[in-house]
Amino acid sequence: MENSVAEASWVRAVNVGKLEPNPAKGGETAIVKSPAERPVFVSAPGPVKGESGLEGDFIGDKENHGGDDQAVYAFAREDLDRWEAELGFVLPDGAFGENLTTIGIDPNEARIGERWRVGPDILLEVTSPRIPCKTFAALMGVAGWARRFSESGRPGAYLRVLQAGSVRAGDAISVVRRPAHGVTVSMALFAFTIKPQIIGDLLAAGEDLTPSMRYEINTRLEPRHQ
Predict the structure, then answer these.
(1) Neighbours of 91 (CB within 10 A)
(2) Residue 115 falls within a domain, yes or no?
(3) What's the maximum distance between 2 C-alpha atoms anywhere in the chain?
(4) How many domains does the chain have?
(5) At 216, which helix (H) or strand (E)?
(6) Helices 211-225 and 185-192 sit at what angle, rounded to 10 degrees?
(7) Which residue segment(s) compose the domain that 134 sits in?
(8) Cβ atoms 159, 44 nearer than 8 A
(9) What is the mean pLDDT of residues 57-81?
């Protein structure tokens, strides 16, 4: 069963990043992103990791980030505000490396395979949660950040691009497909980090799982079946 849902939601900022020295492990990173002043073209970057779906946005760790299943990263402004209050310092739009800073939609409760219409042209599909990495932890400079971020259950969502187009601040976001299964981005984060015992529950997403997610789930389940 699928639902068509209109949300009072929009894009607050479209953020892109340039390559800079990586504070965690050498090399370069573009995790620090800033709002673009003009519309940004969004398209599928291709199946191989290493490229962003946003024109003018760069990726440093080409082995682990980017590609079609991580073409766009969305994070809620409401969650940035929560972290500001908790951490005691300012988090501008793009501070968590997100491409889309959203208002009014909760990427964490989005279901794997959920589809968003963004502006008049773009169609995106939710693929997976953001798993905190060493670069993110180094950027934040907060003790125990990776676990603290995971425990929050609010990682933001990666999305693939089904229909390309330009996006700008103020564009409306609406949910046009919501799968019947209950596998959310937040649930997937917990399964891959602090609650490995629920990893098998993610298989309920069926064909909405990306091949890489399905492979990872089955790999983690194998030791239990030996």
Answers:
(1) 17
(2) yes
(3) 54
(4) 1
(5) helix 211-225
(6) 40
(7) 3-181
(8) no
(9) 97
